[in-house]
Request: fold
Amino acid sequence: MCDIYASTDPSLYQSVARSVRIGGVVTSIKLERRFWQILEDIAAAGGLSLAQFLTQLHDEVIERRGEIGNFASLLRVVCTINLNRESNP
Reply:
C-alpha cells in the first residue's frame, strides 16, 4: 500500500528556504521542494509571480483574521486544498 509513497523522490521532500518580500519586509520561508512547486503552479494559474501570490495571500489572511500564526503551515495547507480541488472539481 505504501509503495507509491515510499518510492517518493527524496529531492521532493528536501527542505528549501526562500527569501520573499511580503508587505515590504523580507522574510525567509522554509518548505519542502514539492510545496514550492505547487505554490508556483498556483501562482502561475492566477497569472501571478510566486512573490505576488504569497503577498496577496498574506494580505488577504491578515485582512480576514488580523494575524497569521504560522505562514509556512498555512502554505502547506493551501497546497493540499489546491490538490484536493484539482482531484475533485
Notes: The first strand starts at residue 15 and ends at 22. The two ends are 26 Å apart (CA to CA). The CA atoms of residues 16 and 36 lie 8 Å apart.
